[in-house]
Design brief:
Number of helices: 4
Strand content: 25-35%
Order of helices and strands: EEEHHHEEH
Radius of gyration: 15 Å
Largest sheet: 5 strands, antiparallel
Number of strands: 5
Distance between the termini: 32 Å
Shape: globular
Amino acid sequence: MQEKHLYEYAIIRVLPIVEREEFLNVGVILFCKKEKFIKVHFTINKAKLGSFSEELDVDQIELNLQSFEKIAMGTEKCGLIGLLDVASRFRWLTAVRSSAIQTSRPHPGLCDDLEQTAQRLFEELVL
């Protein structure tokens, strides 16, 4: 029997007008400490975001979400944050912030396949 992987995930949200606290789920971050695994999936629905606010800079939001992806991959292009270990990068990505991009609190789970679980959570919670 294959060992189950203990993982944590958080939902990435865009808050077009932070003060109103309305948000749209745009992505998922999945992390497994034991496997040193971290994955970010995101998508941007410009029409839905535009229905919240016409003033939102969607191109900048997309660049910021791409940074989430690069930090998760641990590239040097992300500066010192990209050089942190996987667990520290996940904690940095899911830290509480009051910006247009926020994450939910992390939630735990068990799975057989981390890639498949990341995709499933993305499809269920975002798409």
